[in-house]
Design the sequence.
C-alpha cells in the first residue's frame, strides 16, 4: 500500500475502530505491499472511536516501518482502549506528540493488543503450603511494549488463566498430565479472569 498524508487536519471524526484512520490487515500476495507509507505534519484532534484507537487504529504489519514525523495526537477518545493510537504490534512513537488522549475517561495515549501475562508476585525458592492454604499470586496483563493494560470496560474479562500443580521433574512430554494429577496434587480455585488488567489469588 502506498500512502502519503502530509499537513492534514483530522478533527471530530468517528468510527467503530480508528476515529480518523483505520489500517486493516494485509492481503496475501498483495503486489502493493512493498510500497511506502508516509504520515508527516498532521494534526489529529477530538476524534472518537467506539472501541479502539481514538485517532488511529492499525493491524497493518508494515505500519511500524512507515515514515512517521511530527504528528500531533490530541484530545481523542476511545471507548475501550487506545485513546490516541491502538496497534496490533508495537510501533515507534517518536513521530508523534500526544496530548490528553483518553479511553474510558483515563489518560491513555497509546496501547497495543495484549501480548504478555506478567507474574508480579515474588516467589521464594522453596514455598511450603498446607492443605487449604492460599498461595496469593498477582498477574498483570501487558501489551507488546510492556505497558499495563487497564481494562476499565472489562473487555478482556473472559481472558482466563488456569494452573495445574505437579511434582517437580515429575512431568515430561511422554507422560500424561491428567494421569499425574490423579496421583499427586489438586489445585482448586485455579481459574481466574482479569479485572482492570489484574488477576489475584489462587488457592
Sequence:
Amino acid at each position: 500500500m502506498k500512502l502519503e498524508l502530509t499537513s492534514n487536519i483530522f478533527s471530530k471524526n468517528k468510527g467503530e475502530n480508528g476515529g480518523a484512520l483505520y489500517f486493516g490487515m494485509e492481503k496475501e500476495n498483495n503486489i502493493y505491499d512493498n510500497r511506502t507509507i508516509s504520515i508527516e505534519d498532521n494534526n489529529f484532534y477530538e476524534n472518537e472511536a467506539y472501541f479502539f484507537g481514538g485517532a488511529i487504529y492499525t493491524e497493518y504489519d508494515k505500519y511500524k516501518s512507515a515514515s512517521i514525523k511530527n504528528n500531533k495526537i490530541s484530545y481523542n477518545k476511545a471507548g475501550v482502549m487506545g485513546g490516541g493510537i491502538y496497534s496490533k504490534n508495537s510501533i515507534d512513537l517518536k513521530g508523534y506528540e500526544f496530548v490528553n488522549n483518553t479511553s474510558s475517561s483515563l489518560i491513555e495515549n497509546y496501547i497495543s493488543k495484549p501480548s504478555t501475562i506478567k507474574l508480579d508476585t515474588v516467589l521464594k525458592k522453596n514455598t511450603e503450603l498446607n492443605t487449604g492454604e492460599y498461595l496469593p499470586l498477582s498477574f498483570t496483563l501487558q501489551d507488546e511494549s510492556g505497558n499495563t493494560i487497564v481494562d476499565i470496560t472489562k473487555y478482556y474479562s473472559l481472558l482466563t488463566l488456569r494452573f495445574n500443580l505437579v511434582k517437580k521433574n515429575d512431568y515430561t512430554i511422554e507422560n500424561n498430565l491428567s494421569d499425574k494429577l490423579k496421583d499427586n496434587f489438586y489445585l482448586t480455585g485455579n481459574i481466574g479472569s482479569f479485572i482492570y488488567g489484574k488477576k489475584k489469588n489462587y488457592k
Notes: The radius of gyration is 22 Å. The mean pLDDT is 80. Helices lie at 177-183.
